[in-house]
Design brief:
The complex is a heterodimer of chains A (256) and B (764). Helices cover 39% and strands 13% of the residues of chain A. Chain A is built from seven helices and seven strands. In chain A, strand 1, helix 2 and strand 2 form a beta-alpha-beta unit. The termini of chain A are far apart. Chain B is α/β, with parallel strands linked by helices and 764 residues long. An eight-stranded mixed β-sheet of chain B has the order 17-16-18-19-27-26-25-22, sandwiched between helices. Chain B has a six-stranded mixed β-sheet with strand order 5-4-3-6-7-37. In chain B, strands 9-15-14-11-12 form a five-stranded mixed β-sheet, with no helix packed on it. In chain B, helix 10 links the parallel strand 18 and strand 19. The longest helix of chain B has 22 residues. The chains are: A alpha/beta (256), B alpha/beta (764). At the A-B interface, helix 1, helix 3, helix 6 and helix 7 of A face helix 8, strand 17, strand 21, strand 23 and helix 13 of B. Chain B: This is Putative glutamine amidotransferase domain-containing protein. Chain B: It comes from Tectimicrobiota bacterium. Chain B: Keywords: Membrane, Transmembrane, Transmembrane helix.
């Protein structure tokens, strides 16, 4: 028969093993699925860097259901100076309000990150053109790419055809019916939406949509998800859909 | 004055005076200002003196003393010199390159003999010139050779070198840099000069007049010359390859000339040229469409025509390398991943590669609630790719790709045949959908893979690990990232660790294992991460991981440099497609063209299949001559350097030779290589015999000389020259006056007189 002391000892040991194996499993799965799609999100000072609790995860579920991509379903949170940044070639940046300037070391790291294969999706949840998040983010883009401006992506940009043929660009709102981006060579490693995509994706604990989407309603929400999936596909497949073999099919489907 | 001086001194005929401190004008100015200041003060101090005459006298003495002092400060030196007057130099240059010995049409006279005839009419010219100048005689081609006597008055031997006026004029300036060259008499036809633009800028700076002479209408010859052949060093199989032949003609106006393109003495193409000028230059174009790769030797030639002055320049040989077109790579990816993203960019960025990529964006298990028309997805064209199109690819890569949902197993047999029978390359990159996870056990793919699949332990294991090179990996061309094994090992150690790998049983006996996981072992040793093998006529590669992209992106973070990743994949692809520069035997020579009679040195490098040097290789050699005969060179000398042998050859006749080498191991051919060499005429000057009177005219005009066309101007050559000689100091004696007592005595005397008159005048 165990004494109380022996029981407690055994319990502690058992809990210890359980903890270790859990950690190991997490580490193993975290490390082992390094080639899986990880949704990394940028943390920064000031403002509200994480306005949505579930939105991105809803998109990841849709990505897993509808495409061959195997995403990790939990987000990873990183700062711009994080030494693990380059383990996650996809980075999501969002917010509603103005935020503090990113540290210089972080700006340099992000510049290298975007110039050499990383991708950044930026989503303005504030939807206030020239104010709040938009104002601060444009300031930071100037620091990362001092010689470039955000440019409107043309209608035939490959991001609009990487998976779905996206004909409408909107989120929770339709502030701008287009995406903006920064080009590096023939790629666009930074894409910016001012329409609050995350707001269109967000669900509550009961699985209901949190926000109404205006002006296009549920159809616009559907486009927001499609656009999100396309952006993910673009980050991984880049200009794949511009390969010659795809062009006749895409032209035909577009009705050209 | 000089005569008087000479009589007085018995030797010197010139007086000169030199001063010091002339290089410090500020000092001279300062001293001058001080002295002038002192003199002004001195004049003012004489106001009290009523006698104007005495005032002037005292002041004059002071001025003289000040001037003497000033002169003394300048340390004057009196120089007595014996000078002689010398004549100016005149250089006479006679071209004795082979082109000067070309005979005219239907005559026995060479160009040189026509010049001699002309100058022999005016023999007194040389005596007249001798009176005012010192004549120096030279013959020249690409260098100057001093002659004791006038070359125009004696027999001279032809030089084999090409005429080079740049070297000649530069050499002449060097020779006469300390002597007064007054002019240059140039006897040449101006042929053979290359790099005319450099020559023109030299002529513009030439310091003395050039008097040049041209034969004009007296220069008669008939000649057809292949002056140049313009063709790329490389051509591509099944692509047009253009050869441009430049032809110079002289004396064939109105005739139709046949121009041939030959390969190994066989005419493969012929074109006709209608000559419409007395002297002209034409370009003919030949277009080939090569069907095989390799090094090929061609000849552009014109048959000999009657009365042609020179037949040696009727042909030119050249060689070209015909290579495969772009490497066509088929990349199949089972799911969009970062590994695919970075590999795709690497291949796309190589302009020598054409990538056809298919990525499975949706599997049969995915659910999409939209009509097909709203998707950009296309059907995976497996039927087309693995039947009719397969032969068009040089390399097939399966990247984390499970074939089973998309095409039947017999398409894998097509891939196996393509590799083993057609020599294609195949690579499998790991992931959960590769190797065992892709259903490749017991398939034709497993047959060609360099590894055996582990059917017991499962397919894919997570975990962090570095890939370490084996000894073979440290020298294999795929993984050799540094200059040598040591540097390669050091570079690989810098690469970041990876995550997740496929469980493979072991490398096959015929394979080379290049990379291992040092942290995981089985009964055969550390788990294989990277293995390669030659299989049938092709090659295959297995990379048991799906995170090589980290060698790119994480290295950027660490060092800012992702070139090791790029290099690894470029080298892997080149090895898989059997790029010529990765052959197991490589021939090279120090030159491509050799003058006839010169020994040719060939270097032979041989490697084992793992690319370690292979010494004392068994070689089969064959030398094919221009006449299509075959010789077997025997004297291969092994060098002290492992894997290196040397061979010396003599090329007995003009033309192109091909040396073929086969590297044997028993009955098996390990590799082949071939090299083309050319034996050329050791008389470069006769390759261009066309006279260039315009050049001679330019030389005369730009230097202030004169060009004489002796076919028109038959009178005595008119050469206005600067006859002024120069004086040379033969002897000199110096008298430094500032070291003598006399100037000091003069100053003291002047000052003493001044003092005396001042005292006599009642001044202090």
């Amino acid at each position: 028969m165990f004494t109380r002391r022996e029981f407690c000892k055994a319990l502690i040991i058992a809990l210890g093993f359980a903890g270790i194996s859990t950690i190991s499993a997490n580490k193993a799965s975290a490390f082992g699925d390094r080639n899986h799609f990880h949704f990394a999100q940028l943390k920064y000072k000031g403002g509200n860097w994480n306005p949505y609790r579930t939105g991105p995860e809803e998109l990841l579920k849709k990505l897993k259901r509808e495409t061959s991509v195997e995403p990790a379903l939990k987000r990873v949170y990183l700062e711009s100076t994080d030494k693990n940044l380059f383990l996650y070639p996809f980075l999501f940046v969002t917010g509603r309000e103005e935020f503090d300037p990113w540290p210089e070391e972080g700006v340099l790291q992000l510049r290298k990150y975007l110039n050499y294969g990383g991708f950044m999706l930026v989503d303005d949840a504030g939807t206030q053109e020239g104010h709040g998040f938009d104002k601060s983010f444009r300031r930071e883009v100037q620091r990362i790419f001092p010689n470039q401006q955000l440019k409107k992506l043309s209608k035939d940009h490959v991001v609009y055809q990487t998976f779905y043929l996206v004909r409408s660009v909107g989120g929770k709102k339709m502030v701008k019916p287009y995406l903006e981006g920064i080009d590096v060579g023939d790629l666009t490693p930074l894409i910016y939406s001012q329409n609050d995509l995350g707001g269109a994706w967000e669900k509550d604990n009961l699985g209901k949509w949190v926000y109404q989407v205006q002006p296009g309603g549920e159809l616009q929400r559907d486009w927001a998800f499609r656009l999100g999936i396309n952006i993910f596909m673009y980050a991984v497949t880049v200009n794949y859909k511009k390969d010659q073999i795809h062009i006749p099919f895409i032209m035909q489907r577009k009705g050209a | 004055m000089s005569t008087l001086l000479q009589q007085l001194t018995g030797q010197y005929n010139t007086i000169d005076i030199q001063f010091s401190h002339l290089d410090k004008p500020w000092l001279i100015f300062l001293i001058g200002v001080l002295l002038v200041g002192a003199l002004i003060l001195s004049w003012l101090s004489l106001r009290r003196l009523s006698s104007h005459g005495r005032k002037i006298l005292i002041f004059s003495l002071r001025v003289l003393a000040a001037m003497s002092l000033f002169l003394l400060f300048l340390s004057p030196t009196l120089q007595l010199q014996e000078r002689t007057k010398e004549k100016g130099e005149l250089a006479v240059l006679v071209d004795n390159s082979l082109s000067m010995f070309v005979k005219g049409i239907a005559e026995d006279k060479t160009r040189l003999s026509k010049y001699k005839e002309y100058f022999n009419i005016y023999l007194e010219l040389w005596n007249e010139l001798n009176e005012d100048f010192r004549l120096s005689y030279f013959t020249f081609s690409d260098h100057l050779k001093s002659e004791l006597a006038n070359p125009l008055a004696k027999e001279i031997v032809p030089a084999l070198d090409r005429t080079d006026f740049i070297k000649i004029l530069t050499g002449l300036q060097d020779k006469f840099k300390d002597s007064p060259l007054r002019g240059l008499i140039l006897v040449t036809e101006g042929a053979g000069q290359e790099d005319l633009s450099s020559l023109k800028s030299l002529i513009e700076r030439f310091p003395v007049p050039i008097y040049s002479f041209g034969l004009g209408k007296l220069d008669t010859y008939k000649d057809l010359q292949i002056s140049d052949v313009l063709a790329d060093e490389f051509g591509f199989v099944n692509h047009p390859y253009i050869i441009k032949a430049k032809i110079k003609t002289s004396g064939f106006k109105g005739e139709k000339i046949s121009v041939h393109l030959k390969e190994s003495e066989q005419i493969i193409m012929a074109k006709n040229l209608l000559v419409d000028k007395e002297k002209g230059e034409y370009t003919l174009e030949f277009e080939l469409r090569p069907e095989k790769t390799g090094e090929f030797s061609y000849i552009i030639s014109i048959p000999a025509y009657p009365q042609e002055t020179d037949l040696e320049n009727n042909q030119r040989n050249f060689t070209t390398q015909i290579v495969k077109d772009k490497t066509r790579v088929l990349l199949l990816c089972g799911s969009p991943t970062w590994d695919y993203r970075f590999l795709r960019r690497t291949i796309k960025q190589n302009p020598n590669m054409e990538l056809i990529a298919f990525t499975i964006l949706r599997t049969p298990f995915n659910v999409i609630d939209v009509p097909q028309e709203e998707l950009s997805l296309i059907r995976f064209p497996a039927d087309q790719l693995f039947t009719t199109e397969l032969k068009n690819f040089d390399l097939i890569i399966f990247d984390n790709f499970n074939f089973q949902p998309y095409f039947p197993i017999n398409y894998l047999e097509n891939i196996r045949k393509a590799v083993m029978e057609d020599g294609k390359g195949f690579a499998m990159i790991g992931g959960e959908l590769s190797f065992l996870g892709g259903g490749y056990a017991n398939t034709p793919i497993e047959e060609i893979l360099p590894v055996q699949l582990d059917r017991k332990e499962g397919n894919f294991e997570p975990g962090e690990f570095p890939m370490r090179l084996t000894d073979e990996g440290k020298r294999h061309p795929i993984t050799l990232l540094g200059e040598d094994a040591q540097q390669t090992e050091s570079l690989w150690a810098q690469l970041p660790p990876l995550f997740g790998f496929n469980l493979l049983l072991k490398g096959k006996p015929t394979a080379q294992v290049l990379g291992i996981n040092p942290f995981r072992k089985n009964q055969f040793g550390p788990r294989v991460m990277l293995a390669v093998q030659s299989v049938g006529r092709g090659r295959s590669l297995a990379l048991a991981l799906d995170s090589s992209w980290m060698w790119n992106f994480l290295m950027v973070q660490k060092t800012g440099d992702n070139s090791l990743y790029h290099r690894f994949w470029q080298q892997a692809i080149r090895w898989l497609i059997k790029s010529p520069d990765l052959r197991l035997i490589r021939l090279s020579s120090d030159l491509k063209k050799y003058p006839l009679g010169e020994k040719v040195k060939i270097t032979i490098k041989t490697f084992h299949e793992d690319y370690s040097p292979a010494s004392n290789p068994e070689l089969k050699l064959k030398l094919r001559t221009p006449g299509n005969k075959i010789f077997v060179p025997r004297e291969v000398i092994p060098s002290k350097i492992p894997g290196l042998s040397e061979l010396e050859l003599a090329l007995p006749e003009l033309g192109a030779y091909t040396l073929e080498a086969e590297y044997m191991k028993g009955e098996k051919t390990e590799g082949k290589d071939a090299i083309t060499l050319e034996a050329i005429e050791a008389r470069p000057d006769l390759q261009d015999i066309e006279s260039n009177w315009d050049l001679l005219r330019l030389m005369a005009e730009k230097t202030g000389g004169k060009y004489t066309d002796i076919s028109i101007e038959r009178g005595k050559p008119n050469m206005p020259l600067n006859k002024e000689g120069i004086f040379k100091i033969v002897n000199q004696k110096d008298f430094p006056l500032h070291r003598s007592l006399v100037p000091y005595l003069i100053i003291v005397t002047l000052l003493a007189f001044e003092w005396a008159i001042r005292k006599w005048s009642g001044l202090p």
